[in-house]
């Protein structure tokens, strides 16, 4: 391995570094071990670790888990959606009978909350939440720029899915294939949810 040191002291260095990311993650740097130095506000340790993963899958998985754990630690002990007796801000405001907020539409939701790590869901906040909290957005995780544009799009839209399924969507090389996988899961989710409602209404069916 050839060691390559990059020093990022100010915004200009940082922007230059971002512009070169496409090359740093390419095959031409397969035998380069990056050493990034500079201001910690640029998340350089995450960039460095990700760039030093030479396996595409490992890099994607690492970036995904990093963003999830950073959101979890920022939101720790916060009741962002204002749940009271299982109803969120919106459900209480509209006096709805349903519980569990947006997750009521998902087949994976359990009585103990979400059983997985879904980045799109973690980044989704309705107006009721946004007007009360300064919430995380995709732009707060600059290291996600290491992902292709196709994967950035998938990450932002892959709701109601298990972490493992999202990762498979990210591993796929084409947007069409990822979107087809997402589309079929949405249909499956809808049918299974509808099945549960029908079973609840007509248990003899
Ligand atoms: S994002 Fe909004 S609608 Fe969804 S669970 Fe939270 S408060 Fe409810
Ligand atoms: S995957 Fe998303 S919608 Fe489903 S339970 Fe988890 S957070 Fe809720």
Structure report:
- This protein is mainly alpha-helical.
- It has two domains: 54 residues, no CATH class; 147 residues, no CATH class.
- A two-stranded parallel sheet has the order 1-2.
- 17% of the residues are buried.
- The structure holds iron/sulfur cluster (2 copies).
- The site of one iron/sulfur cluster has 10 residues, from helix 4 and helix 6.
- The site of one iron/sulfur cluster has 11 residues, from loops.
- DSSP strand tally: 2
Order of helices and strands: EHEHHHHHHHH
Helical fraction: 40-55%
Broad shape:
globular
Mean pLDDT: 91
What ligands does this structure carry?
iron/sulfur cluster
Q: How many domain units?
A: 2
Q: Compute the separation of the termini in Å.
A: 64 Å
Unreliable sequence segments:
198-205
User: Biggest β-sheet, characterized?
Assistant: 2 strands, parallel
Major sheet: arrangement of strands: 1-2
Radius of gyration: 20 Å
In short:
The chain is 50% helix and 7% strand. The chain has 205 residues and is mostly helical.
Compile the SSE list and pairings.
Layout: E1 2-8, H1 11-24, E2 32-38, H2 44-52, H3 56-75, H4 89-93, H5 119-123, H6 127-130, H7 149-157, H8 163-171, H9 175-201
Parallel strand pairs: 1-2
Helix pairs in contact: 2-3, 7-8
The protein binds iron/sulfur cluster (SF4) (2 copies).
One iron/sulfur cluster (SF4) is lined by residues 102-103, 106, 108-109, 114, 116, 118, 121, 159-160.
């Amino acid at each position: 391995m050839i060691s390559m040191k990059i020093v990022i002291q100010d915004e200009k260095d940082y922007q230059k570094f971002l512009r070169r990311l496409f090359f740093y993650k390419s095959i031409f740097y397969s035998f380069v071990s990056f050493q990034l130095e500079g201001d910690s506000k640029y998340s350089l340790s995450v960039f460095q670790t990700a760039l030093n993963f030479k396996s595409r899958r490992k890099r994607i998985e690492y970036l995904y888990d990093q963003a999830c754990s950073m959101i979890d630690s920022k939101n720790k002990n916060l009741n962002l959606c204002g749940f009271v007796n299982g109803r969120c801000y919106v459900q209480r405001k509209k006096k709805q009978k349903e519980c569990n907020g947006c997750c009521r539409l998902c087949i994976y939701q359990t009585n103990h909350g979400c059983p997985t790590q879904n980045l799109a869901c973690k980044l989704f906040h309705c107006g009721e939440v946004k007007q009360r909290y300064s919430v995380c957005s995709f732009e707060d995780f600059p290291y996600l720029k290491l992902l292709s544009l196709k994967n950035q799009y998938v990450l932002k839209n892959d709701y109601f899915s298990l972490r493992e399924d999202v990762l498979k969507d990210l591993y796929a090389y084409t947007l069409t294939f990822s979107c087809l996988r997402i589309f079929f899961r949405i249909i499956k989710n809808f049918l299974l949810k509808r099945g549960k409602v029908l079973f609840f209404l007509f248990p003899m069916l």
